[in-house]
What we know:
Low-confidence stretches: none
Number of strands: 0
Largest sheet: none
Strand content: under 5%
Distance between the termini: 10 Å
Number of helices: 4
Amino acid sequence: MAWLILILAGAVEIAWSQSIKPTEGFTKPLATLVCFALAAVAVYLLSYSMKTLPVGTAYAVFTGIGAVGAIGLGVAVQKDPMSVGRALALALIVGGIVLARVTDPE
């Protein structure tokens, strides 16, 4: 169950990462409120998963999911450039997340 909560926390972090730009430097009140709310939910879910999972593993997986999702959405939605180097970096992050999961003693 902790792994599912951690994956959900990573998904919320992805949404949070996409909510930062619309705040326009935290000058838009509603967008800023959404941004802060998503950040709070992401950290709450992460902390909940840490009741069972090791802190280092949980945080690394959380940030990895967020990074992969943020880059993926940046490429798909914001038309950010994709290069061989970025694709390799994403593959390494995903590989690290998978390795952390399969080697978890839980």
